[in-house]
Amino acid sequence: xxxxxxxxxxxxxxxxxxxxxxxxxxxxxxxxxxxxxxxxxxxxxxxxxxxxxxxxxxxxxxxxxxxxxxxxxxxxxxxxxxxxxxxxxxxxxxxxxxxxxxxxxxxxxxxxxxxxxxxxxxxxxxxxxxxxxxxxxxxxxxxxxxxxxxxxxxxxxxxxxxxxxxxxxxxxxxxxxxxxxxxxxxxxxxxxxxxxxxxxxxxxxxxxxxxxxxxxxxxxxxxxxxxxxxxxxxxxxxxxxxxxxxxxxxxxxxxxxxxxxxxxxxxxxxxxxxxxxxxxxxxxxxxxxxxxxxxxxxxxxxxxxxxxxxxxxxxxxxxxxxxxxxxxxxxxxxxxxxxxxxxxxxxxxxxxxxxxxxxxx
Amino acid sequence: xxxxxxxxxxxxxxxxxxxxxxxxxxxxxxxxxxxxxxxxxxxxxxxxxxxxxxxxxxxxxxxxxxxxxxxxxxxxxxxxxxxxxxxxxxxxxxxxxxxxxxxxxxxxxxxxxxxxxxxxxxxxxxxxxxxxxxxxxxxxxxxxxxxxxxxxxxxxxxxxxxxxxxxxxxxxxxxxxxxxxxxxxxxxxxxxxxxxxxxxxxxxxxxxxxxxxxxxxxxxxxxxxxxxxxxxxxxxxxxxxxxxxxxxxxxxxxxxxxxxxxxxxxxxxxxxxxxxxxxxxxxxxxxxxxxxxxxxxxxxxxxxxxxxxxxxxxxxxxxxxxxxxxxxxxxxxxxxxxxxxxxxxxxxxxxxxxxxxxxxx
Lengths: 361, 361
Prior knowledge:
The structure is a homodimer. By secondary structure, chain A is of the alpha/beta class. Chain A has 2 domains: 2-170, Rossmann fold (3-Layer(aba) Sandwich), CATH 3.40.50.1970; 173-357, Up-down Bundle (Dehydroquinate synthase-like, alpha domain), CATH 1.20.1090. The first copy, chain A, is 46% helix and 19% strand. Chain A has 13 helices and 13 strands. Chain A has helices at 25-29, 46-57, 76-88, 103-115, 129-135, 173-190, 192-206, 210-230, 245-255, 262-279, 285-297, 310-317, 347-357, and strands at residues 2-6, 13-18, 36-42, 61-67, 96-101, 121-126, 140-145, 148-155, 161-164, 323-324, 327-328, 330-335, 338-342. In chain A, α10 runs antiparallel to α11 and α10 crosses α13. Chain A is globular. The model of chain A has no long low-confidence stretch (mean pLDDT 96). The interface between A and B is large, with 39 and 39 residues.
């Protein structure tokens, strides 16, 4: 087992990564502040892992709630089912919510914890690669709104993150690939040696080599923990973690939540950010092609869906959380491993790039 | 104008109290961090005061949203209408929500601000006595759930509180009286001289004497600001502010939100807390009668609704936010001006008192 720490003063917490961790209930129990917990999972993950987690937790007062699986269920209505359960079972302020599943479960359960009785504890038990490398770490919680991804939420840090690498064995190939998009993102942001490593180890990652996956998770979490510790509430540098996400969120919203996986939309978004950066002359063409080649080799989409046009992109991107007084900040690339947050791009370059992406130019 | 401060480090903010403040837009403008704001009000308050506030704010980018009036609308569904408006009008993270109305508007708009894009600014512009003396100060935001009052929410401090005492002129008598319940509460918690003052000045308060009302608001806010500054997130002493509220929330939930005003339920709850304290021998009988007499003289209910029984009270109180690992803490009285938080009361005394209150004993 590898343990990292997210350093946030009295809200610091450990990330445990390794095989067999679902059976190590003491990792969770030692972080609880009360004696009751609600495990929230989904219909796909619960049959596989819920009993194992329950058994490992011993004699806590435990309840469970199983929700439907998919991004289209990350809504206020489904969130309300968590509140219903908590109140029907009389969970008090000292309870802990355990999020067992992928990014949708983690984000939604985290927001339920942030808002139930004005805030209770929660623990992330991510079972997908995407959740293990990205969404379970850093305290961003949210549900979607029909007009925008993750528009309703809170910053609320978990008490710990338990990433059992054994749970990746059951992950569909499509979801494994989607997780790799976020792994590649960390290399692109500020870790060029990690990008090189991903290029070299991609076949092993796709073949689910345990050592390669564990290293990818460890390094992704370490990169993310460092950025989050610097800027917990995204007043600056943390927005780098949104590389590819402004384009990606627009794709997810336009396509209908759940049709593109989040990681797939991010993959296309990373390529779009690279190509816009190349158009601006910030990123060399060869590096841009390296990004596209790695995304394609990972079996991920490198283009937006053909039915989207520039207007739709601009309309949805105008609602991005990085818009400030009418100006949209984008995360763009000066180099592989050299991302920056910028409002200093010409608006017509963005427009021209979107036209090129969507076949209008 | 009187100005108090809630001292919370970098989240400190002023409370301005006085006549004509709705016309003093600079008090709000100087606290804004962006150039856009959404005024949220209700169908009762908006026709009276929204235009005045709008005109005073000058050339901000302003939008408005008018919601139905009443505790029964403090729900996730109505909250969602605030998100809809914010997203449809593309409000970004630097926007400010302005809550113009009573406690329902303040609590709900505050929670919308806490959760929109993971947190934006808001300003409280309370127009009822209850909101001016209590709910607008301290950062507790929430909506109700069918199974419990204020069960979904966040701690989120406003940027400032603007209490225009002129707005009390339009307040129905019933709501003025409801506000006095919270004023009396501050005297009971830790300010016996204020309790004496309220007894002496009650006729002036009921006659809406401007100087008396302003003094009641100032002193209530000062008492509350002091307690909140000591314990922002209610890990201890802040729970004193819930005197009367455990009984009161049960009354509101059992009666159907909106049938009893919050202040009315708190008034009955204050009397129930006093009588239970007297039963325990903590509060003298003469002081208990003084509490009941002041509540009655203010035209407020001193008994729970006749249709409630002990079982209903115990069932609803078991979901109170002060329950910890199965034990309900109550705020009780050792004296007028001497409240304490206690789990040290005999359960059968609570049961016997509820039986006596509800006619079963």
